[in-house]
Specification:
The protein has 231 residues and is an alpha+beta fold. It folds into 2 domains: 124 residues, ATPase, nucleotide binding domain (Nucleotidyltransferase, domain 5), CATH 3.30.420; 75 residues. The chain contains 6 helices and 9 strands. The strands form 2 sheets. Strands 3-2-1-4-8 form a 5-stranded mixed β-sheet, sandwiched between helices. It is globular and about 60 Å long.
């Protein structure tokens, strides 16, 4: 039996394809990968059958139950928006706590303006191209200001409700949502394995991405590895 903590299950859904794969985190390899092409919008019965058939096969393969899944969505409904802030600070270097509070502030601004959205990815970008190493010890001419651009990739609540109900019928909970386009932006002709890249990004490949974990999943506070950028 493979322990649940040793593998990660991903379900990819787009208008062209359904794909489910299991990634062995210890041995860095796929344990299972199955897909089916489709040329129509997401069709509940076909998707439900695809999930049912493959969850059963996966559980037989790994001799364990699938309780959680990471859902990768590629759809026009996904929102991609950037929020910028400029804040004055009064210390020679930017303290980590100050940056954490600034990110919380931007996250709250996003939620106030897009309260019907669930955040999939929260990524720190910067128009001035300040490197991560310099954010804590900024020596620019305007070093009395903090400039941050935060990119949010999100999905509508009503859209996620459909998938949550569908997987609940299979006794599976969605642990996280990821954007298919975001994952594919890291792929190249030489490295086009979606499962490998999804696992890498889920485990912190992009050091500028803030890793968010809902309280409803684990009672460990709202952010897990909130400041991966400064770890």
């Amino acid at each position: 039996m493979i322990e649940e903590t040793d593998f990660e299950t991903f379900l990819y859904i787009s208008k062209n394809k359904y794909q489910i794969f299991v990634y062995d985190k210890n041995n860095l390899k796929e344990l299972y990968n199955e897909e089916v092409k489709t040329n129509v919008d997401i069709e509940p019965n076909n998707l439900s059958k695809f999930i049912d058939d493959n969850i059963y096969k996966i559980e037989k393969t790994i001799n364990n139950f699938i309780r959680n899944i990471i859902l990768i969505i590629e759809d026009d409904k996904i929102l991609d928006v950037t929020i910028s802030i400029k804040k004055k600070y009064y210390e020679k270097s930017i303290a980590q706590k100050y940056l954490e509070n600034s990110l919380v502030e931007v996250k709250d601004i996003f939620r106030e303006n897009y309260n019907d959205q669930i955040i999939m990815h929260m990524i720190i970008v910067n128009n001035h191209k300040i490197k991560n190493d310099n954010l804590l010890n900024n020596s620019n001419k305007n070093d009395d200001y903090l400039f941050l651009d935060i990119n949010f990739i999100s999905i509508p609540n009503k859209f996620t409700f459909y998938f949550e109900k569908l997987l609940e019928d299979h006794q599976v909970k969605i642990r996280r949502y990821m954007s298919g386009n975001y994952i594919k932006s890291y792929l190249s002709e030489d490295a086009n394995n979606l499962s490998v890249m999804a696992n890498k990004l889920n485990n912190g490949l992009n050091k500028d991405e803030v890793q968010l974990v809902s309280k409803s999943i684990e009672n460990r506070g709202f952010f897990e590895r909130f400041f991966q950028l400064f770890s």
